[in-house]
Amino acid sequence: MGMGEGMMEKLGSVSAVWSALVSVVLFWPVVNNHVPAGLRQWLTTTAHKLTAYLTPYLHVTISEYGHERFRRSDFFLAVEAYLSHACARRARKLRADLGKDARTLQVTVDDHQEVTDSFRGVTLWWYPSKKPPRSNVISFYPREDESRFYSLVFHRRHRDLVLDVYLPHVLAEGRSVIVRNRQRRLFTNNASGSSSPYSRKGVWSHVPFEHPATFDTLAMEPADKDAIVDDLTAFRESKDYYAKVGKAWKRGYLLHGPPGTGKSTMIAAMANFLDYDVYDLELTAVKTNTDLRKLYIETTGKSIIVIEDIDCSVDLTGKRSKATSDDKKKKSSDEDDGDKPKLPGEPEKEEASKVTLSGLLNFIDGLWSACGGERIIIFTTNHKEKLDPALIRRGRMDVHIEMSYCRFEAFKVLAKNYLGVEQHEVFGEIRRLLEEVDMSPADVAENLMPMSKKKKRDPDACLAGLIDALNKAKVEAAAAKAKEEAEAEAKPKAKDDEEAEGETVNNKSPSEEEKANGTI
Ligand SMILES: Nc1ncnc2c1ncn2[C@@H]1O[C@H](COP(=O)(O)OP(=O)(O)OP(=O)(O)O)[C@@H](O)[C@H]1O
């Protein structure tokens, strides 16, 4: 009797819960319209708890912002990508858009669409949802208000399969979908080098990266090109190796050579080969070493960070110790300035970049530089000799690549790309001229570019134009050399004359140039 009563009681309470649930379902539109947000949230949570008590189904929640408040969770993004890709055919509401190449059609699951997935014969349900904004909090971060999450629902008997196998599978699949669909980006740092915490604008701005250069279109010696491709491939596949030897997973390249030899083109070819984003860092716009560090932290993995014309960016020629002591002096003088009251109407001082050599060295291989992994840092310069050896020593700039004038093998790549010509009777003459004349690939390419429709149809005319340009450059180079030699010959004579003069007028003070050269 007691047992029977207990059973009756339980059944009674279950049916009471059911009728409560039915009432909630019926009255939910009324609740939605008339009940304040706080109470509505409480009712939702309670309903969830009640359902959890009654059903054998389990929930896993994947939030848009995981532990990190300001960075979307990688797992959330992977789930989003996975569902759009794997479950699009089964969803009822779809979204169609143009793919990253602006040509192919991409069909994905609509934002608020529930989807059903099937894995090893098990059915799973995904529910996208949004966290309601906290009404008593005014947020400067719009994303806090828009925080989304996914709920994965499955029967409790599949708990192990879902947690140990299905979710890792979703993560891996989602990541590879992201990589496949990724529109790569070209970033540049914003003028101040730092952003306000209240601003949505980050420290970097970006546009789609669309440079078409590849290693196939890059004109350089084939053996050098192959060596670079091998090096990049080895780097990309060496995650475990870097971890084993205790090094951050990054590599530095120094590209040096005269203007127009393809340094920027090489960077684009590397980015396209690796499928990485490019961060083009304008160092003169970075005010302090701290801003430089912030910029680094805000870069993502799988990226190339570029500082072009590093010798022109900031004064990095000082020795590290000197830079540091200079910094200190500068800091103390700045502090002095800080104490000085500013006169009314006195203009604001234009803030110059205070990035130092030591700041830059820290940027490349300080502790922070190990964050995130899989990064390539590239410096370019037209004057390698001007750089501090500490900056470009192996280990920091692991690979030094000299981009040089166009020789015959490089020319053949350009002739094939620009004219579609692989063999021609004038190639022999061009080979001979390219061995004698230093012409950059940019200048060779310029000569191969058909300037008129007529020339486009006539590679012969383009090649003849190149031969003319090479002959002209050869004559000019010979004239410049002759002039240089004549000047060099004239110099000792002038010096002799001065010395002779010095014997008679011995109180003449040495010139500044002579002092600098130590010739007196
Ligand atoms: N090695 C090369 N292969 C193919 N094209 C090249 C090469 N070098 C130069 N070019 C052509 O010349 C143009 C200028 O080259 P690029 O900007 O890459 O040279 P750079 O070495 O970076 O020059 P700078 O030192 O002046 O920045 C490119 O747009 C490209 O069309």
Measured between the Cα atoms of the first and last residue, the distance is: 122 Å
Bound molecules: adenosine-5'-triphosphate
Q: What overall form do the CA principal axes indicate? A: elongated
CATH classification class of the largest domain: Alpha Beta
Strand order within the widest beta sheet: 8-7-10-11-12-9-13
Major sheet details: 7 strands, mixed
Would you mind describing this structure in some detail?
With 520 residues, this protein is an alpha/beta fold. It has three domains: 56-182, no CATH class; 186-330 and 352-402, P-loop containing nucleotide triphosphate hydrolases (Rossmann fold, 3-Layer(aba) Sandwich), CATH 3.40.50; 408-496, no CATH class. Helices cover 49% and strands 15% of the residues. The chain has helices spanning 2-34, 37-54, 74-86, 142-145, 159-181, 222-236, 239-245, 263-274, 289-297, 310-313, 320-339, 357-365, 389-392, 408-419, 427-436, 441-448, 453-456, 459-504, 512-517, and strands at 57-63, 94-98, 105-109, 115-119, 122-130, 148-155, 185-189, 204-208, 250-256, 277-280, 303-307, 375-381, 399-402. A seven-stranded mixed beta sheet has the order 8-7-10-11-12-9-13. It is elongated. The termini are far apart. It binds adenosine-5'-triphosphate (ATP). Residues 217-220, 259-265, 382, 403, 441-442, 445 line the site of adenosine-5'-triphosphate.
